Records
---
Amino acid sequence: MKKEIMQGNAAIARGAWEAGVKVAAAYPGTPSSEILKDIADNYPEIYAEWSPNEMVAMQVASGAALAGARSMVSMKHVGMNVAADSFMTLSYTGIKGGMVIIVADDPNVHSSQNEQDSRNWARFGKAPMLEPADAQECKDFVKIAFDISEKFDTPIFVRTETRVAHADSPVSLEDRKESKIALGLDPKEAAKYVMVPANVRVRRKVVEEKMKKLEEYAETFKYNVVEMNDTSVGVIASSAAYLYTKEVFPEWSYLKLGMVWPLPKKMIADFAKKVKKLVIVEELDPFFETEIKAMGIKIWHGKDVIPNMYELSPEIVEAALKGKKYKAPKVKVKPEDLPRRPPNLCAGCSHRPLFYALKKLGAFVFGDIGCYTLAFAPPLQALHTTICMGSGGGMAHGAMKALGKEGLGKVCAVLGDSTFLHSGLSPLMNTVYNKGNSTTIVLDNRITGMTGHQEHPGSGFTVRQEPTNMVDYAEIGKALGVKSIRNIDPYNMKETTEVLKEEMAKDEPSLILCKDSPCMLLRRAKPLERFKNPVYAINTDNCRGCKMCLEINCPAISWREGAGQTKDGHKRKGTVYINPDQCVGCEVCVQICKYDAIEPGKK
Amino acid sequence: MKDNGKVTNIFLSGVGGQGTILASNILAEIFLKAGYDVKKAEVHGMAQRGGDVTTHFRFGKKVYSSLIKYGDVDFLLSFEELEALRYINWVKPEGKILINKQEIFPPAVSLGNMAYPKDTEKTFKKYFKNNIWMIDGQGIAKKLGNAQAANVVLVGAFSNFFPTFKDEQWLDAIKGLLAPKLHDLNIKAFFAGKKAM
């Protein structure tokens, strides 16, 4: 069998292909984004799409499943919040072709707005959930998930997390097997799928029966594995938490859960009896612990020592379980003494001048999820909320209703193009309908930026790079009833500032669209061609060291200490330096400099 | 090669955009083909935007955790000096360290609020004696015609720690991961790096 080193997400894509999946849908979100891209790039037998949001992706997958196809939907943990309404009734209706929901958690919030534990969805939504630990298991679990889904007529979760989704390990490759279920829709099955109360009550019972059968199945599920060793301590764990614990305590006995819902209660009780002391090691919530304690089983250690927040690691597990006996390595340099290196907007990014203008206007900016969230960081500090996809528009409207006319000129909402299409339309519609007056700014950079360039309905391309319809944001605004729609070129800072000032002061809803401002990393949009000069440099004859240009936090610009004076005799403590390897010539700093100290330079 | 029962831990650190992921992919190919179990963990997403990036790379007969235990690093391969210092506590007392001589200023330094740490080499020498090497990966790559090949220059230097592998094995891995038009440059980069240490 051929073995390849694969990322967990690539192994999930491979598993879907080998399982005979026909339809895959997703909305990008770290750490899940690579799954759909990998499918689109490598497996032409699967129809793949970026849906505008996770709820639509969930609907696409469930529709395909209802038509008999094996289907998969993938998203990050918070994507399930958006998809939940479409999901919660699916366990009642069941599916026909197998349907797998991949949900990727982000313990330690490497790139998210919260740390919710997706295992709760399985219990809440009454659906089974598997949890792989490495890439091989990612592939194997996705395949067996389809069998379980069809056997029990249920959608099924496969939950990953950053250290599974973004960890690479060897995977054995197998061939694709087509599903045996015939494609087709049958109107006679409507009672199973029309969830009106009379039908719901029938299906409600089916759900409970299904979960009971799944609980029995869990007892024999081949990826719930007991490893008996030294019986003084027995560990119950799943996924990466199992690997970390096994790494530091290889001598103990283990019950590794591959299926985390429903739990194999008999197997757990049996394992607990065989070991002297029981330990439960799990990341985030005390999910197993609550269930196992409810079974009346005594545990030695669980969340009393294992942290219930951030991610675990071998040393965290070791320190938690060894207590005072744990010896930490010697600290040679205190990390807190070193300058941090947070992510930053790229040199030349069109978000930078826009946020600088908003800062100068003293606006309170209701933000959203995307690269532009980075504008919250010092020294820019020009974004003041980030809650969830699409939240800024609704919140700005609410704030304006609370503030009344006092708020005019001081408040706006910003969101990206992909975010606007994901869930920004309804808030804008609401602002118009309810006679609001807030300003919504769409930072259109022609792509889903932060997650690594995924197409969306406004980018003009499908996931497989086929040209397609491009949403016209101004037409949407018009159709929703916005009368004041303005285009701005964020790189023209004077004009941008004027438009922002005018629109925020208006006692009516406005929509501002950033035009011709593609992402700096989006090669096909040729973002650098719009700049007159490829690079700028400091004229030290003129630089007074006023540090104004440092306020935009451009990665190309840095401070150079050193007392001196300008050519015309102004004393200074240092000058600014522009790194020619990083500068792209966006001219934002040129517009800020009051002393003509920034001039075209040479690459 | 190392004792079969033991897992070897390689920690890579750098700044988003420096090509640490390609370097770790080359390592993964080499050790997988040599018959080892391999695990590698890195964070994608937000960290790509100029933030610090790390890769945990482990190989051995059987590897469980993808994350290296704090303090258990056998080899630290850093693409940037500050990002080497940030992980100095992770390295075992007998660990070996290879650092790219490059300073990339983080915002606090660019703004003049903090100083860029001085004497990276001295600090490492204090604790690791002669087990630290520093090479000018970017300078070497620039001379070859493209600063972007600095990551493969570093891989070339790093290959000296594993003398049982033949050059062809490294080159096969590099060629397998890069587009054909980049092969010549990166083969040169590999050998230049190997010689630089």
Note: Helices of chain B lie at 20-33, 81-85, 107-110, 120-128, 137-144, 150-158, 167-177, 183-196.
---
Amino acid sequence: MLSNAFFLGKGGVGKTTLSAAFALDLARSGKRVLIASLDPAHNLGDVYGVALGDRPTGVERGLDALEVDLGAWVDRYLEESRSELKATYAYAGTLNLDRFFDIMKYSPGTEEYAVLWAIEHIHCELSAEYDVVVFDTPPTALSLRFLAMPAISRLWIAELSKLRERILEKRQSITRINPASPVASSCVDKADDKVYGRLGAIRERLAGLQGLFGKESYVAVVINPDQLSVSEALRIKEELDRIEVPLSGLCVNKRGVSAAEWSLDSRLSETPAFDFDFLPGGLRDREDLRTIDCGSLVADFMATAPEGTL
Amino acid sequence: MDSFGKGFAAKPFLFLCGPGGPREKDMGGFTDGIRAALGVIRQVNRERATEMIEFELKELENIFTLLVIGGFVGMPAPPTPIAIELLPLLERELSIMLSRSDFAQDPLGALMGILQVD
């Protein structure tokens, strides 16, 4: 069995409802489950009828939930970056110039990093107490960006590491031939080179996250029976293929909501699909989640082994 | 007699060149000079042998820095956290990058100079 499940999809298709029902089903089958909402517009607490915060809150026996405070994670990430730069340019503090680094809080692209560090925090600090962690994700654009971030960053790190190795080889050659060269006073070994060491540390951290997404997670895309969400699911699959994250399941939610013609694209036909009927009465409380039959989805999740263990 | 003769002949030589003799001092200075000259020649050859590798090394370090912090001058760059994490460790590379900008107008000229192409 895998230890994580991600529910992705277009806004409004029912990611929160299905992930909440899935987590509840797992918990009632005896697993210890943590469900985390990564969506900046949280409504997981509303679905369960429990006030949730940034720390795990008990929903019922075997099920804890939390709503990640993305704003706090953005602040935390930026604070770390600001501290790093302020430490590098500590002398600027003497002239009170370091305050100009505060502009970094408005840097674009910080939200996906904040999500990434929040997932890393949940994985490293909280997941040990649970059998399964379920992630209710933000709408597609942000989710794909944070899922792709480890893979993209690793490409950069791989290329920079190769270049650094070449630099160190050149330094070694120069030091061997001409020990009096100023180059000889710089680092020539991989073990001593701080830059190479830091690249290795970043590589390990990213490998952990990529392994979490690609090998330890069940990634399900939620769609509605309409062509728009099928097209979006196709784009998600293509992006997931590109970053080597397998698509595990397709949840067709709100079956019967309309009589409009729709069909699954043949490129999605290899992925197991699970149907969930439209609830005409909507969701009023937690017990309504029991009317959503997650049995086959849970069975498929339980039957999916982590990559490399089959 | 033989021994007297040998001793007689050896004495002035020993006096001049033996330990503490004036010749020995001259010879020592001469060999030191030769040794120093050979050292200079050897070092010059070493410098010349590594000149091209050092040029290549500086270019590699320059490229490395440009790749890491190129975002600051509008170049495609790695995700910002990578640049920020590496920045404090790039003092040497940054100074090399700035020094390379001195001959940015004529990098081939510098290379031809090293290769002694007129």
Note: The first helix of chain B runs from residue 2 to 17.
